[in-house]
Amino acid sequence: MTRLNLIKPLISRCGSPVLLLSLLLATANGQTAGDLRGAQRQFRGRPLTRPRVPDLQREFRGVWVATVANIDWPSSSAISTDQQKAELIRLLNTAKELNLNAVVFQIRPQCDALYASTLEPWSEYLTGQMGKAPEPYYDSLEFAVAEAHARGIELHAWFNPYRALHPSAKRPPSPDHISQRRPDLAKPYGQQVWLDPGEKEVQDYSLSVVLDVVRRYDIDGVHFDDYFYPYIEKDAAGQNIPFPDDPAWQKYLAAGGTLSRADWRRQNVNSFVQQVYQKIKEVKPYVKFGISPFGIWKPGNPPGIVGLSAYDEIYADSRKWLSEGWVDYLTPQLYWPIKPPAQSYTALLDWWLSQNLLRRHLWPGNAVYKISNAAGSTFPASELIDQIAATRQRPGSTGNIHFSMIHFLNNRGGVTDALKSGAYAQPALVPATPWIDNFPPEAPGVTYTAGANPDETIISWTAQGTEPAFWWLVYLKQGETWKSIILPGATMNYKVPQPNAGEPAVSLVAVSAVDRSGNESQRTIISLSN
Prior knowledge:
Blueprint: H1 3-14, H2 17-28, E1 42-44, E2 60-65, H3 81-97, E3 102-108, H4 124-127, H5 140-150, E4 154-159, E5 163-165, H6 178-181, E6 186-189, E7 192-195, H7 200-216, E8 221-224, H8 246-254, H9 261-283, E9 288-291, H10 310-313, H11 318-324, E10 329-330, H12 345-355, E11 361-362, E12 365-367, H13 381-392, E13 399-403, H14 405-409, H15 415-421, E14 445-450, E15 457-462, E16 471-478, E17 481-488, E18 493-495, E19 506-514, E20 524-527
Parallel strand pairs: 2-3, 2-13, 3-4, 4-8, 8-9, 9-10, 10-11, 12-13
Antiparallel strand pairs: 1-14, 5-7, 6-7, 14-15, 15-18, 16-17, 16-19, 19-20
Helix pairs in contact: 3-5, 7-9
């Protein structure tokens, strides 16, 4: 028998030649095998080509967190800073337990700010009085971003670009609010006050607010909802109230403009959307820009669809934004069930997919708020489950955004339980955005050591190359089953959980790096078998 054949059984029992060499050297120095189970045991990972690590599912699982009228958070503007933080922690913990991976957080509901701003006053929905800072002081957006990222969740900052005052406001606006500083730009309309999208100063102002946040906060996306020109309001006699944009319209005509008034209004919105997209990319290219328009572009698209025309009523040509590539994702609000043909979820989703020639992300919006506990309800929790399944069946649609978080917190109609045990039972990674960046980071270097407890194993890793990791993915093989964990980029180690009674121990671990655009590196795999 050769010396190699004598050593092979020892290698097999020890799991690696490195461990065998450590044992031999330790024995020569008088150390026992037990000594090597302590903190000195350390093994460097290597890329193994044989084991196949199952890919983590790619799916955007977002939820809106509305702050206007305290819909989702905070529950009241009268609660303390500590209570607000506790509510936000509960909200994010629930999102994590539900395996959601993105929160769309409303930070500018009415030309105010749920963050520290020199451009707009603090929101009354946060402190009870517009212009009043939280006491004790904290920056709610900074806090939300940090806590979301610590849980492996993206945070998209949600702005209302034109709404200046909402009917739910209970106190007068502060003197520094734009409705008070520039009443020529902020026009009363029905029960609201609205910035005039036809004024270039308005577009520049709202753009400056967005870019201020992009520069100063570590957000993952900028999000607009469906409010551009306002939905039509009616007077006491039931007649449509015309939007008061005559001054801007007359200036346009005087300058030689030739568009119809409707086309001019659409062009005002289009040029603003295009500029927002371009300027965000100039500041931070990885920050995604998404819009959630009303779900029907025009009635008859597709045939059989009836309802409000966003193109004609609020002058939102959302199909154009998609076809021009002015968004990284579009989230048409498909708040209807699958079956009724007049506004069918699947019929509308198929139409939107057919318009997505540039293959931007299409993540439809879903109406969790419509789920009812009532017997015979036309919108039970199973409807939402069916909509998620229908979305997954369609190539090109890789996720959903749900309105809104309060209904997950309250488990409306049992929907939270149903998702936890079904469609969202396993975690998912946000789909990559290759038109922004298509280059993955390098695979990490990985080692493992024993912890303080002899049965405890700590996995550690180091970044390689110049591109930092935004997330780390840790894959664990236990028996024949793989489990995945998403960790923030600042985390550089992970304690392998001990198996429950009767379960096999973790035998393989793989670690990869993911950048801000969702590109995943190759996986470094190490064996924990001894």
